[in-house]
Amino acid sequence: MSDESNEQYNYKNYDSILNSPIRLAIMSLLLGSGEAEFTFIRDSIGATDGNLSRHLAKLEEEKLIEVRKEFEGKKPVTWQKLTPEGKDALYAYLAKLEKLIASVKK
User: Fold this and answer.
1) Rounded to two decimals, what is the model's pTM?
2) Whose CA is closest to 103, among 13, 8, 10?
3) Cα–Cα distances in Å, from 1 out to 12, 40, 51, 74, 105?
4) InterPro entries, alphabetically (predicted)?
5) Do 38 and 52 touch, CB atoms closer than 8 A?
6) Which of 5, 45, 74, 87 is the most buried (most CB within 10 A)?
7) Torsions phi, psi of 82, nearest 5?
């Protein structure tokens, strides 16, 4: 095997932030929807409020998502969307996964 083909197996080449199933699900959902409200994300991916909050905070801290809070009447509503950096990170991560998957299908 060449050094280049071994690179796809090196776990250090995969974004540890996006390696989490919940964060990958969040990012994928946001890529498809553009912007999504907290309860929609929670219900779509099957997370609890606390678990989702923690993962959203990590994604925001890494500047992969942008969070917007507003009120609908007196009810607080929180919206999330991917940042341009988040889109780039997700596309790069998916490209690496696709390359890995293709290598094991041969």
Assistant:
1) 0.86
2) 8
3) 18, 45, 41, 61, 16
4) ArsR-like_HTH, HTH_ArsR_DNA-bd_dom, WH-like_DNA-bd_sf, WH_DNA-bd_dom, WH_DNA-bd_sf
5) yes
6) 45
7) -70, 145
